[in-house]
């Protein structure tokens, strides 16, 4: 395989413009056509190329403005009362990175939203509050801080906070930009509130306990029947895994949330992960196709992305574009750090587009610019 990345070689477009060619191009343009060789090298890069840039959103800077939105508009007025986070290079599609959207939603005690559904898949990672809940296809699920909740593609869902609860804030993640790019999105509003068809927390009770699942029920949906992954179970599992497994030099203790029926990703188009960086961890750099949005769930640290350092602490959100060199570091010598993330890996993997590469210089670490 030829590793020369110069376009001035056989096999790449190397046509030099002439007056005759420029006139020819104008003739084609009039007919809605063009010569491939004028764009071939740009649309077929030597390596994957992202339109996004790394970004960090500091929670302490955003929180007051997120809460202020609850003083200015109601959930019913807004449809969904969310402050969305947008990449400097993806504003045209309202994406945080690649084809992924994220935002921060706030709901006060006693408030709730109308049920709705859309072709875009959605997920939540709970940041603050008490007494919050979601209803997914008639399943009412309560949640606590650091719980991970899914609302799959085309599932009816609504959110609220019990009147005796505390204001809840959570991160939303959706693949709206992707589904819109495929020209396949839609939106529908439920007529009234969903009926609660099963006992509260029926989904995590049946599919999230001790690795067992109901033997007398058929689940034939393409997404996970487990709609909530409780931090009270996830965090101890991370701690135990850190004691019994070799620490991955790139990602520490790295776990995927999974569909208990298949062992695969929780939804068709978005996956989610949780990782623990042990005290003092200094991760080696790598890059891969697939866009990632991270939230620090615990601790503090920093990531180096394409040579730039981004310091994060609990509740901060940052993104790693596809094919960007990145490495994660725990800034504490006595406390572990945990990072939640969601991604478009199911799409990359199903389409055969996933690839990765390790960084080999400087013992696997980037130099900070």
What would your notes on this structure say?
The structure is a single chain. With 369 residues, the protein is α+β, with helices and mostly antiparallel strands. The protein folds into two domains: 1-46, no CATH class; 55-364, Jelly Rolls, CATH 2.60.120.10. It is built from eight helices and 20 strands. The protein has helices at 19-30, 40-43, 59-72, 75-78, 176-181, 202-207, 231-244, 345-350; strands at 55-57, 82-85, 101-107, 116-118, 122-136, 139-143, 148-151, 157-174, 187-189, 228-229, 253-256, 271-277, 286-288, 292-298, 300-305, 308-313, 317-320, 326-330, 337-343, 356-358. The strands form five sheets. Strands 2, 3, 5, 6, 7, 8 and 10 form a seven-stranded antiparallel sheet that branches. A six-stranded antiparallel sheet has the order 1-17-14-19-12-11. Strand 15 and strand 16 (308-313) form a beta hairpin. The longest helix has 14 residues, at 59-72. It is globular and about 75 Å long. The two termini are 32 Å apart. The mean pLDDT is 96.
Name the helicity range: 10-25%
What's the rounded overall pLDDT mean?
A: 96
Relevant CATH superfamily of the largest domain: Jelly Rolls
| Beta-strand fraction estimate | 25-35%
What is the CA–CA distance across the termini? 32 Å
**Domains counted in the coordinates: how many?**
2
The second-level CATH architecture of the largest domain is Sandwich
Uncertain residue ranges:
none
């Amino acid at each position: 395989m030829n590793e020369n990345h110069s376009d001035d070689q056989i096999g790449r477009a190397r046509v030099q413009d002439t007056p005759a060619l420029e006139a020819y191009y104008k003739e084609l343009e009039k007919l809605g056509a063009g010569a491939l060789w004028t764009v071939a090298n740009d649309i077929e890069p030597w390596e994957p190329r992202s339109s996004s840039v790394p970004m960090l959103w500091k929670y302490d800077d955003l929180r007051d403005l997120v809460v202020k939105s609850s003083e200015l508009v109601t959930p019913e007025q807004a449809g969904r009362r969310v402050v969305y986070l947008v990449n400097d290079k993806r504003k045209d599609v309202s994406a945080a990175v690649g084809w992924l959207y994220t935002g921060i939603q706030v709901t006060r005690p006693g408030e709730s939203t109308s049920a709705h559904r859309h072709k875009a898949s959605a997920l939540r990672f709970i940041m603050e509050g008490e007494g919050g809940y979601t209803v997914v296809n008639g399943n009412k699920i309560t949640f606590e801080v650091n719980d991970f909740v899914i609302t799959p593609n085309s599932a009816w869902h609504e959110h609220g906070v019990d009147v005796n609860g505390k204001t809840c804030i959570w991160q939303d993640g959706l693949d709206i930009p992707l589904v819109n790019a495929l020209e396949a999105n839609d939106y529908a509003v439920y007529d009234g509130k969903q009926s609660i068809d099963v006992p509260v927390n029926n989904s995590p009770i049946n599919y999230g306990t001790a690795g067992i699942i109901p033997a007398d029920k058929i689940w034939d949906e393409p997404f996970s029947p487990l709609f909530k992954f409780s931090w009270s179970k996830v965090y101890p599992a991370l701690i135990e895994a850190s004691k019994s497994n070799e620490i991955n030099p790139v990602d520490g203790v790295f776990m995927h949330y999974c569909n208990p029926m298949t062992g695969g990703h929780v939804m068709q188009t978005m996956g989610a992960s949780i990782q623990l960086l042990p005290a003092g961890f200094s991760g080696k750099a790598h890059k891969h196709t697939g866009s990632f949005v991270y939230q620090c769930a615990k601790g503090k640290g920093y990531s180096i992305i394409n040579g730039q350092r981004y310091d994060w602490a609990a509740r901060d959100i940052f993104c790693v574009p596809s094919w960007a060199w990145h490495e994660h570091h725990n800034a504490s010598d006595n406390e572990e750090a945990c990072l939640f993330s969601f991604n478009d890996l199911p799409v990359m993997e199903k389409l055969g587009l996933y690839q990765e590469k390790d960084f080999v210089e400087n013992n696997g670490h980037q130099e900070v610019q």
